[in-house]
């Protein structure tokens, strides 16, 4: 058997594609996202291509052909090497190869690139079904059994507080639980404080910390500032504006040098706060953080070399699935996606303007005084684009504590909260002991 013949069996062995079509036609998730799809999905490997026709969500096999590219958004072509496909179809795929969208950063090709959110989810699920077929695993959606007695109240309570920032009134929503040292929790770009709901209910934390998860203006339940025609101007987050929010919130709530934790945008903000406001915080925890968040030219990129920022919340939400841990609970991964899908158009790109512009601590890491404000960094290995940037920051910040989190991705607190808390608790112990 030639190498080409061996790699082709990835799709043809044991009637895998026939089984895939049958499963796709009966799978609720696939049908939910493909009912408006009439076109095709072509899987290419080492010169061979296998085409599946789709008609309003009905899948059927077509004849094998040569791989082609497509400019039609309904005809999707995903091409990789035999090794790439074999790795992606493992029971637990490694970072970057959990789906074909992440695979673009590691050499796979996908055309067209600008797929809708629904089509992204459909393609992702079809590949996921193929993984189940290859490994003989159960494709039934897995839910988390965490129900509580009827009428039970969560510990978290929500309130609004008015903060005057840059001369304007901001009605900021926050939820809090627990008592003790203040712990301000900042969400990722384009979403809101719901990402921290598990931390708010964890008595291992709330027994010692007053946990406060807030929504940035324009996010979640926090409105844009009053007195501003925000609908007539582009939303762009700046470092100066962003840093004022946790400081103003801490002052309004009477917190004495709280600790701060944030992920992604919040992780970048943690480092800026340590650099410019070390006396306002007793410690910061930077999750998925970096000194500068634009990947350099040596970093993985999509096959055409471009990096895009989604302005469509549903499309962008679907793309975030590529950066979550492969073993994270399925229901929590989709809940994390849901947070993104409910964001307002233009908010995510506006948030990204902060860490692709104002947030730039290159050449300043040595100025972060960790004796005054200890810095802790945590980055999930499935956040494969951020990991090298976090490692570089950890090398340059004096006396920083840094830990990689195997199995976790870009949203550790919401995609896999129980695994995440195992990394966070020792840090909180250290903060409480100061």
UniProtKB/TrEMBL annotation:
Classification via Pfam families: Abhydrolase_6
Domain of life: Bacteria
Ranges of residues in domain AB hydrolase-1: 187-421
GO molecular function, one term: catalytic activity
Xref: InterPro entries: AB_hydrolase_1 (IPR000073), AB_hydrolase_fold (IPR029058), AB_hydrolase_sf (IPR050266)
Name the UniProt record assigns to this protein: Carboxylesterase (Modular protein)
């Amino acid at each position: 058997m030639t190498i080409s013949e061996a790699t082709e069996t990835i799709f043809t062995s044991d009637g895998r594609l026939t089984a895939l079509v049958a499963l796709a036609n009966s799978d609720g998730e696939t049908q939910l996202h493909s009912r408006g799809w009439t076109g095709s999905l072509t899987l290419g490997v080492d010169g061979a291509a296998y085409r599946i026709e789709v008609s309003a969500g009905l899948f059927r096999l077509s004849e094998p052909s040569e791989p082609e590219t497509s400019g039609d958004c309904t005809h999707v072509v995903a091409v990789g090497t035999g090794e790439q496909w074999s790795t992606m179809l493992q029971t637990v795929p490694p970072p970057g190869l959990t789906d074909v969208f992440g695979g673009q950063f590691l050499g796979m090709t996908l055309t067209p690139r600008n797929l809708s959110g629904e089509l992204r989810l459909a393609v992702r699920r079809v590949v996921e079904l193929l993984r189940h077929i290859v490994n003989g695993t159960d494709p039934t959606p897995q839910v988390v059994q965490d129900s509580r007695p009827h009428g039970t109240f969560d510990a978290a309570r929500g309130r609004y507080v008015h903060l005057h920032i840059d001369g304007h009134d901001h009605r900021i929503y926050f939820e809090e639980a627990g008592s003790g040292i203040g712990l301000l929790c900042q969400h990722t770009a384009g979403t809101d404080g719901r990402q921290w709901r598990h931390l708010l209910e964890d008595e291992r934390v709330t027994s010692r910390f007053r946990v406060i998860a807030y929504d940035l203006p324009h996010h979640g339940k926090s409105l844009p500032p009053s007195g501003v025609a925000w609908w007539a101007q582009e939303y762009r987050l700046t470092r100066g504006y962003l840093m004022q929010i946790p400081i103003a919130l801490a002052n309004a709530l009477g917190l004495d040098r709280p600790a701060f934790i944030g992920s992604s945008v919040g992780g970048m903000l943690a480092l800026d706060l340590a650099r410019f406001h070390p006396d306002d915080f007793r410690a910061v925890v930077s999750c998925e953080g970096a000194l500068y968040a634009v990947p350099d030219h040596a970093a993985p990129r999509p096959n055409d070399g471009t990096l895009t920022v989604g302005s469509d919340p549903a499309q962008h939400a679907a793309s975030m699935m590529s950066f979550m841990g492969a073993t994270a609970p399925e229901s929590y991964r989709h809940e994390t996606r849901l947070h993104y899908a409910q964001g307002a158009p233009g908010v995510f790109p506006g948030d990204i303007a902060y860490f692709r512009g104002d947030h730039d601590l290159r050449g300043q890491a040595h100025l972060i005084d960790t004796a005054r404000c200890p810095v802790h960094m945590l980055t999930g290995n499935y956040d494969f684009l951020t990991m090298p940037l976090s490692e570089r920051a950890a090398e340059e910040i004096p006396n920083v504590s840094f830990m990689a989190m195997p199995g976790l991705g870009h949203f550790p607190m919401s995609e896999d909260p129980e695994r995440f808390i195992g990394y966070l608790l020792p840090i909180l112990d250290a903060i409480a002991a100061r």
